[in-house]
Amino acid sequence: MRVLGxxxxxxxxxxxxxxxxxxxxxxxxxxxxxxxxxxxxxxxRLLLIETGLEEWFEAHRPDAVAVERVFSQHNVRTVMGxxxxxxxxxxxxxxxGLPVALHTPSEVKAAISGSGRADKDQVAAMVARVLRLxxxxxxxxxADAAALAICHIWRGTAQNRLAAAIAKQR
Amino acid sequence: MRVLGxxxxxxxxxxxxxxxxxxxxxxxxxxxxxxxxxxxxxxxRLLLIETGLEEWFEAHRPDAVAVERVFSQHNVRTVMGxxxxxxxxxxxxxxxGLPVALHTPSEVKAAISGSGRADKDQVAAMVARVLRLxxxxxxxxxADAAALAICHIWRGTAQNRLAAAIAKQR
Lengths: 170, 170
Prior knowledge:
2 copies of one chain form a homodimer.
Chain A: E1 2-7, E2 12-19, E3 27-35, H1 42-60, E4 64-68, H2 76-95, E5 100-103, H3 105-113, H4 120-130, H5 140-169
Parallel strand pairs in A: 1-4, 4-5
Antiparallel strand pairs in A: 1-2, 2-3
């Protein structure tokens, strides 16, 4: 399974593509960020994010998409932009008929490091370890996007195993 | 000038198209809502909003777009969806190269009724009066979208007059 993770943001929108199945070594297919200039009109920034993400989807043809679930209790000024960037990511995925899953930051941290309170550096270090990289992807938004993709592969498989076990019981 | 106003929302996204210039009677070209079912996946809802708005843009070819500016201090549960629906509206407009203006609810209320604290019914009544309609457009989201378009025509013209006056002074 190839999963494209998106850490949404207006200034830097992280993208990480990871391939594999839980229980086997995962492979990093690509990682990076889509950037938009802060002085540009909001509607144009969203358009640049769309264009940038379209290129990632086109180049890597993922089977599923994992986007960070945005909460409004965080920084009030940035959260609206984050929500809007996440909408663009979901839209690009939906247009291609791809399943979109939302994972909270704590779910990602817990899946990848065993603790929902892990800090940025711990998550980045675990991303490097899981993907057998010499060092974590940079910037942090790129590492977070890869972490989202890893989380999705691991959680998805756990959910599939659970569904299979329930089906067997019947 | 033909302006398409959008009152963003996931369940009901209001759309109102108004034509004219400030100081002259304005005409309602079209008004309605794009609806999406609440039990549908968020990414699919955003896609339905995109498709629905595309139809409005295609049918009415506006010169400019006015979208309600979303604030995060409001209802925490609904504000994220509103922000995401507004992102889709801005994106559809930007893709067509149209200018997008954001107006706050108080700016719209003040422009149309003279008071930033006007209630929904007052705004709807003023929309009907300004557009010379027998009764306000329904539902409220449709009337709000028309109010946004009216506000944009009136504010835009005031801003243009100001810019012209400044240019004349020099």
